[in-house]
Amino acid sequence: MVPSMREWFNTNFTEEKYQAYLHELNAPHPGALDFRVAETPIFLDKAFTETMLSACESIVDVITQYNFKQLTSHAIPDEVRVPNENSHSHFIAFDFGICEDEEGQLVPKLIEMQGFPTLFAFQAFQPEIAEKHFTLPAGYTSYLNGFTKQTYLQLLREIIVAGHDPENVVLLEILPHKQKTRIDFYFTEDYLGIPIVDLADIIKVGRNLYYEKAGRRIAIKRIYNRIIFDDLQQQTDALQEKGKILLEELDVEWAPHPNWFYRISKFTLPYLHHDCIPETRFLSDIKVIPADLENYVLKPLFSFSGQGVVIDVSRADIDKVTDPHNWILQRKVKYAEVIKTPDGPAKAEIRIFYFWKDGDTRPIATQNLARLSKGKMIGVRYNKDKEWVGGTLAYFER
């Protein structure tokens, strides 16, 4: 992306530096880093970053419209609709692929978005370790809008803890200590002082929720929600039954409220229009199926971890769909093999974090994570036994 930076980094890279980097990333919570960390960050110039952020802001314009809730009223399946929804999502993540347009120019293209948290706390830790071991030059930062680690964590604390005693705010997840993202849970606890609580361990008394610690029953006033209901539906009958508690009227605050996972999602894509957003339509709205289906991706609105996505679409795939209102057809993008590595180029995605504090009129871009891939898709299952792939972060030219 920035050829001089790529050449500088690759020339100065050593396996010893990388192993020392991994060792320090693992040191605070040994064994918890359960995904591959890539050997390199991504370096983005000002123009590419500004284009990507302009797409984000155009989406925020839609999300902040007076009628957005009406527009997305059918996004939430009835069986997972949670009461007492607030006015906005506290967190939004936008995923962009680094792609090639028809002229071969590098452009950001929106792939997904979610009104849901991601590795917010780990991404406050990773940059300082990366900058220590790779001695990255001045003039680049992984933060946006002037944020630093200190101000970023302060805003994260204000949104999640929101003035409560931290022991009354919980990070709620299903089997949290078995999740691949558990490293982020542990850093959230480190930075914010809030406990990690398993859904199976919550106690309901009337409209109130509690958890137990050291023989004490402690009230839950606010939930930092990390439960994906699509994931919950894959769990045991006992866990699914426990999860029904969350669908009841409760005296508890949410950050973010679970309904926003559905409102800001693939469901929203057909309503968006920007040069960086691929054409997307609900399958039910398409009267004439495109003849060039090889240029599209078929995606279910409700799926966990990318399951059900059809990359090489055929007319037979379309015909098999029995609920077309729950599927989208999205124009395929061409990922650029743009990141030069010792054993061949890698593709990349960048996830931009937006935080939305109560009382603010709009969310703000704060930080990012990135992923490198040499497989057909971004993700662990497509990158087994490969190097210079995995989770990392983007550095933006100041």
**Total helix count?**
11
Q: Which secondary-structure class do the elements indicate?
A: alpha+beta
Largest sheet: 5 strands, antiparallel
The main sheet orders its strands as 3-2-15-16-17
Instruction: Write down the domain tally.
Output: 3
Mean pLDDT: 94
The first-to-last residue Cα distance is: 15 Å
Write the element-wise H/E pattern from the N-terminal end onward. Answer: HHEHHEEHEHEHEEEEEHHEHEEHEEEEE
Query: Outline, from the CA principal axes?
Result: globular
The low-pLDDT segments are none
Helix content estimate: 25-40%
Number of strands: 18
Q: Rounded to an integer, what's the Rg over CA atoms?
A: 21 Å
Strand content: 15-25%
Walk me through the structure.
- The protein has helices at 3-12, 15-26, 46-63, 68-71, 122-134, 149-160, 182-192, 229-232, 237-243, 260-263, 315-320; strands spanning 42-44, 91-100, 106-114, 140-141, 169-173, 196-198, 203-205, 208-213, 216-220, 222-225, 253-255, 280-282, 296-300, 327-331, 347-355, 364-373, 390-392, 394-397.
- The protein is an alpha+beta fold and 398 residues long.
- It folds into three domains: 1-159 and 260-278 and 336-398, no CATH class; 161-255, Rossmann fold (3-Layer(aba) Sandwich), CATH 3.40.50; 279-332.
- The strands form five sheets. Strands 3-2-15-16-17 form a five-stranded antiparallel sheet.
- Helix 2 runs antiparallel to helix 5.
- The longest helix is centred in the first third of the chain and has 18 residues, at 46-63.
- The protein is globular and about 60 Å long.
- The mean pLDDT is 94.
